[in-house]
Amino acid sequence: PGLVRPLRSLASRVKKSHTHGWTSVLGTATTLRSGGTWDAPKQVVSSLNPSHGAALLASSLLPNLYLQGAGGEYPATGRFVRALFEWTGSDFEPLRATSQRSRPEHALSPELSACLCRALADDDDDAVFFLEGFQRQWALEARADPKRIGESLEVAFAAMDECLRDGLDPPLPIAIVEAQVWRRAIDKRDIWAFVDTVAKVRPDLGVDERTFPDGVDLAEFWTDLKFDGRD
Questions:
Q1: Would you state the pLDDT for residue 128?
Q2: Which candidate, 45, 74, 85, 156, has a CA 20 to 30 Å from the CA of 165?
Q3: End-to-end Cα distance, the chain
């Protein structure tokens, strides 16, 4: 019953979630740069930390958005959730990343997901060029018509506009993409692939080497870290 109860204020629930059991997950933010040189809003920059996706996946927000779909308080965001996830048939299990191979979203690897998050959050001079290149790469890996990729991106950007309009922090569409990365992940190396790609497409937002011991292999060391508020 709790899953189908209408959301009275989704914005307030997103803000409230940070203080209700998510601190241990969000503690990993200390290993990532804050992106102080970026012109995008602060909440957009910080949302590129994948811990937001883990927190969202553990909450009731995703199933609520899925069940409400395009008829809910945030219709575009509901459509976006339905594009990336599918119902498991159980109220006690998290949503499952889409298994429909015919959907472009099924091809979203950790690396492509990081690029999608960058595209959604982008507000710099290279935004158009990056988006065009990403769209071609996504179409190639999904073996899909670029027109279908464009339609998927329209849903994603509509969801982003919807959430930014209401000041949701972090912006839900980026956290939704990160949540499906976690849902698909076999082990933490898949999460590292996301983080490492963020570092490649936005070097000022990647792993902060200063938070690690000197001389360590960052990939190996990071994947051994636990998601704990003391990290």
A1: 81
A2: 85
A3: 36
Given this model, what pLDDT does residue 177 score? 96
Residue 89: DSSP 8-state: S
CB 34 within 8 A of CB 46: yes
- Three-state SS for 92-158 is CCCCEECCCCCCHHHHCCHHHHHHHHHHHHCCCCCHHHHHHHHHHHHHHHHCCCHHHHHHHHHHHHH
Asked whether the beta carbons of 120 and 157 are under 8 A apart, the reply is yes
Beta bridge partner(s), residue 97: 85
pTM of the predicted model, to two decimals? 0.79
> What is the spatial distance between Cα 86 and Cα 1, in angstroms, rounded to a whole number?
19
Cβ atoms of residues 162 and 76 within 8 Å: yes
Please say whether the beta carbons of 66 and 172 come within 8 A. no
